[in-house]
Amino acid sequence: MAHNHAAFLDGTGTTLRIGPSPMPKAGAGELVIRNHAIAINPIDGFQQATGAYLESFPVVLGHDIAGEIYEVGSGVTKFQKGDRVIAHCWGMITKQHEDAGFAEYSRVKAGVTALLPTNVSFTEGVAMPVAIGTAASALYDNLQLPLPSQNATSTGKVLLVYGGSSSVGLTTTQLASAAGIRAVAIASERNHGLCKEMGASQVLDQKDPDLVDKLVAAIGKKDDFVGIFDTISWDDTYANDYKILEKFGSSRLLITHPVPENVPAGVQAKMVFSLGGFAFPVWEQWVPKALQSGALKCRPKPLVVGRGLEKIQDGINRHAKGVSAQKVVVEL
């Protein structure tokens, strides 16, 4: 019988502790994954440092996993034991250690799991789950945009993606483009090629002194503009967001942090949350086929910091120093 271990957070600001953890059991509509790669997300270090969204300790963090299916729950027909998959852990909602990602085995919902092609490594694929969920929240739950398809036609609509070379930015661009939405991205100059490879129609330099005017020209008609998804959500990006929205008389601003104070009148700013049923349709209807065909690319590339649960803390520390067009990953 398999035994599980996890990386526990014992209190706000403490270092992760490795210890035994309950072995997950797959319930109806669920899977248990033997993790081979775990990705680090901004929320992980934020929760460790501040205790945000945590009700009690000890707790297991972690959202992005890639590995092999160990157990299949009742009612699940699309997966079998041994399948290579990526999945989004929902421990932040369920508050159960078994449902978090920083562990050797994790329990996940089958609806946010997808088969991983044999030509894609676990360390590459693990960049995708949280990014898919966050993009789905922005595009479908908030902006009510169409789902991607294999042969999408142009809708004439335009979305501005701020932080276009982040994992969320790159995935949002891919999903939007595959739904006929024209994505205009903002990124550092060295990452323009990557953003265009993912489908951005235009990419502008985040340090350009004429950024706002160039964005207005790139977006075009007011009626075509659906809003801004600011995946960075810092004070300096908000300043540009507000200027752009004012130019267009638009109000839709989606961000990845809590809504700041003193948002200008008329701006509808909302924080997106990656966990929810709104993600099921894109996971079930498009992600598996798109991964197999290569229409959905696993980007950014991994920055592997080591192997083993004890390296997760190193990964969080490395992420805190800043990364660009990379995903911090730990192998197991």
**Structure class:** alpha/beta
- Give the tally of structural domains: 2
The fold-level CATH name of the largest domain is: Quinone Oxidoreductase, Chain A, domain 1
| Run of helices and strands | EEEHEEEHEEHHEHEHEHEHEEHHEHE
Task: Give the gist of this structure.
With 332 residues, this protein is of the alpha/beta class. The protein has 2 domains: 4-128 and 298-331, Quinone Oxidoreductase, Chain A, domain 1 (Alpha-Beta Complex), CATH 3.90.180; 132-271, Rossmann fold. Helix content is 28%, strand content 26%.
How is this fold's topology laid out?
Layout: E1 4-9, E2 17-21, E3 30-39, H1 42-50, E4 59-60, E5 64-72, E6 84-88, H2 91-94, E7 105-109, E8 113-115, H3 122-125, H4 129-142, E9 158-162, H5 167-177, E10 182-187, H6 192-197, E11 202-205, H7 211-219, E12 225-230, H8 235-248, E13 252-255, E14 268-271, H9 280-285, H10 287-293, E15 301-307, H11 312-320, E16 326-331
Parallel strand pairs: 9-10, 9-12, 10-11, 12-13, 13-14, 15-16
Antiparallel strand pairs: 1-2, 1-4, 3-5, 3-7, 3-16, 5-6, 6-8
What does this 3D model show about the protein?
The chain has helices at 42-50, 91-94, 122-125, 129-142, 167-177, 192-197, 211-219, 235-248, 280-285, 287-293, 312-320, and strands spanning 4-9, 17-21, 30-39, 59-60, 64-72, 84-88, 105-109, 113-115, 158-162, 182-187, 202-205, 225-230, 252-255, 268-271, 301-307, 326-331. It starts with a strand and ends with a strand. It has two domains: 4-128 and 298-331, Quinone Oxidoreductase, Chain A, domain 1, CATH 3.90.180; 132-271, Rossmann fold. Strands 3, 5, 6, 7, 8, 15 and 16 form a seven-stranded mixed sheet that branches. Strands 11-10-9-12-13-14 form a six-stranded parallel sheet, with helices on both faces. A three-stranded antiparallel sheet has the order 2-1-4, with no helix packed on it. The relative contact order is 0.16. The model has no long low-confidence stretch (mean pLDDT 96). The protein contains eleven helices and 16 strands. α8 (235-248) links the parallel β12 (225-230) and β13. The chain is 28% helix and 26% strand. The chain is globular and about 60 Å long. α7 packs across α8 (235-248). It is α/β, with parallel strands linked by helices and 332 residues long. Pfam families: ADH_N (PF08240), ADH_zinc_N (PF00107). Residues 13-273 form the Enoyl reductase (ER) domain. Belongs to the zinc-containing alcohol dehydrogenase family. It comes from Pseudocercospora fuligena. This is Dehydrogenase orsE.
